């Protein structure tokens, strides 16, 4: 049983560019949450997707958007990249009725130059 | 507002020594509390969690944590640390808004 997978593992972009990160949830899970972990910090909640809709959102600007597909996989899109967007982006999956039990993927490390 | 404080940014212990990592939280209701571990370049692995009931919870890898409501604390302990325990440890609270709030983490170094 595969756990949560994310792609790519590493990514380098320049300021102003756009990036798309991908996440496949653990088998059987229908809810995907995204987190940003800046260097030396704890993860910060970006948003959560369930039934292909954004259900919850943290304190992040509209440059951060997402999508969930019918197979429950998800994408995180960031537009107009800033240097401060450099971070480890973590995806976590869960069941809709058990959102407190989240399984985390290994993350995508994004570097913005 | 919910928040989690981990007062110790970095801790160094000798292999075989005991360990205690501190965590304080601010939350209006009875919290769901968690400890996660993150090895370099890895995602988060759940060590243990507290929802209700017995205030001393056991986790994986020999870790345990004690919930103390009067002190708003949820400290993580291990009686004998192994070199493989070197990692970053995060305390987190899960809110009724269905969000996790994480502390800033404690980096653990284990010396031979």
Task: List the defining traits of the structure above.
heterodimer; A: 113 residues; mainly beta; 7-stranded mixed beta sheet; 11 strands; B: 112 residues; 4-stranded antiparallel beta sheet; 12 strands
Element layout with pairings:
The complex is a heterodimer of chains A (113) and B (112).
Chain A: E1 5-7, E2 10-13, E3 19-24, E4 31-37, E5 44-50, E6 53-57, E7 64-68, E8 74-78, E9 87-95, E10 98-104, E11 108-112
Chain B: E1 3-5, E2 10-14, E3 19-21, E4 24-26, E5 32-38, E6 45-50, E7 56-58, E8 64-68, E9 73-78, E10 87-94, E11 100-102, E12 106-111
Parallel strand pairs in B: 2-12
Antiparallel strand pairs in B: 1-4, 3-9, 5-6, 5-10, 7-8, 8-9, 10-11, 10-12
Plain-language structure description:
The complex is a heterodimer of chains A (113) and B (112). Chain A has strands at residues 5-7, 10-13, 19-24, 31-37, 44-50, 53-57, 64-68, 74-78, 87-95, 98-104, 108-112. Chain A has no helices and eleven strands. Chain A has 113 residues and is mainly β. Chain A starts with a strand and ends with a strand. By secondary structure, chain B is mainly β. Helices cover 0% and strands 52% of the residues of chain B. Chain B has strands at residues 3-5, 10-14, 19-21, 24-26, 32-38, 45-50, 56-58, 64-68, 73-78, 87-94, 100-102, 106-111. The model of chain B has no long low-confidence stretch (mean pLDDT 92). Chain A binds chain B through residues 4, 33, 35, 40-45, 48, 55-56, 58, 90, 92, 99-107, 109, and chain B through 4, 32, 36, 41-46, 49, 51, 90, 92, 94, 97-105.
């Amino acid at each position: 049983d595969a756990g949560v997978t994310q792609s790519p593992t590493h990514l380098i972009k320049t300021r102003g560019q756009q990036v798309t990160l991908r996440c496949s949830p653990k088998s059987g899970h229908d809810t995907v949450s995204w987190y940003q972990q800046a260097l030396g910090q704890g993860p910060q909640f970006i948003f959560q997707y369930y039934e292909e809709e954004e259900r919850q959102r943290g304190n992040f600007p509209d440059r951060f958007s997402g999508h969930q597909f019918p197979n429950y996989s998800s994408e995180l899109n960031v537009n107009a990249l800033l240097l401060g967007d450099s971070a480890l982006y973590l995806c976590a999956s869960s069941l809709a009725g058990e959102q407190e039990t989240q399984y985390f993927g290994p993350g995508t490390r994004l570097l913005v130059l | 507002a919910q928040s989690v404080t981990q007062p110790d940014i970095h801790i160094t212990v000798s292999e075989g020594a005991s360990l205690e990592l501190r965590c304080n939280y601010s939350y209006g209701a009875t919290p769901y509390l968690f400890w996660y571990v993150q090895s370099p370049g890895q995602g988060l692995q759940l060590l243990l969690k507290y929802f209700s009931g017995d205030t001393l919870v056991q986790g994986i890898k020999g870790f345990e944590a004690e919930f103390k409501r009067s002190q708003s604390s949820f400290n993580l302990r291990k009686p004998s640390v192994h070199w493989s325990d070197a990692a970053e440890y995060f305390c987190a609270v899960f809110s009724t808004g269905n969000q996790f709030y994480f502390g800033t983490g404690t980096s653990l170094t284990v010396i031979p």
